[in-house]
Hints:
Elements: E1 10-15, H1 22-35, E2 39-44, H2 48-55, E3 61-66, H3 68-78, E4 85-89, E5 99-100, H4 104-112, E6 117-130, E7 133-140, E8 143-148, E9 155-161, E10 164-171, E11 173-177, H5 185-188, E12 201-206, E13 216-218, E14 224-229, E15 234-238, E16 244-246, E17 251-265, H6 271-282, H7 286-289
Parallel strand pairs: 1-2, 1-3, 3-4, 4-5
Antiparallel strand pairs: 6-7, 6-17, 8-11, 8-15, 9-10, 9-14, 11-12, 12-13, 14-17, 15-16
Amino acid sequence: MIATIPPPEKIAVMAHPDIEGALDIAQDVSRFLKELGAETRSGSLYDEPFRQTLKEGAFDLLVALGGDGTMLRAGHLCAPVDVPLLGINIGHFGFLAELNRKNWREILPKLMSGSFRYEERMMLSASCVCNEQEHRAYDVINDVVVARGQYVRPIEVETYLNGSHILSYIADGMITATPTGSTAYALAAGGPILPPEIRNILLMPVAPHLSVDRAVVLSEGASVFIKVRTTHEAVVSVDGQEPVLLADGDGVQINAHKKSLFMVRFEDPGYFYRNLTSYMDQNPVYSVNNHHDG
């Protein structure tokens, strides 16, 4: 049973502009919600003035239209300012989205009647450490991937837990993932599926060479440092963003984020396993898409 909670009053509706018809659908959604009593505004996910108004607290819900890539981009926008996220899948794939092209008109009235729940998704905070100096921090919804660069040769990855060395791998890379990210690249690498509501950190090596090939699940409070040892190029990428070069001895510091991503759900918690089975049956290549479609 989903408890009734206060419905959002001011709603931003943002669409991926490169998906055909997305902005038109966003306008339809915006008008529909307005008819239900909400104050709304629609536009492109990349409209910087629009994004800025959300960051300044002008809205108390973000509806994102696109695929899983859109959901990640929207999550990076709204999580730091504690704005919940509701996804409508109009992209190629939308495992993270709650609604789709066919059912949003049927289900959105539940939003305005308070018949929904918030699902709290753990996030990570990651910062590159280069030349022993800490650089820009990243908000992480899916994963941090430390991997070999353009050269098809493995790298050595040293893993430290709370300051103590625990594992070393000769591998193509190392994935540090949230439960959300456990169904993305980590799943393609052979990792376990973690339910979205738990708060654990997943370590998953990518193509380890004569090394332990098992995933390691850490507690939320773990402090992880991934250091690379290599004579050639290595990189780090956060949530599939542009990779940053790492030199020998550089690394990435990773901890649980103080913020969470709150997602609107209309279904009971069992939806996760029902949807996962359905999507994987229908989309055998899903796991390698790493939630970056649309």
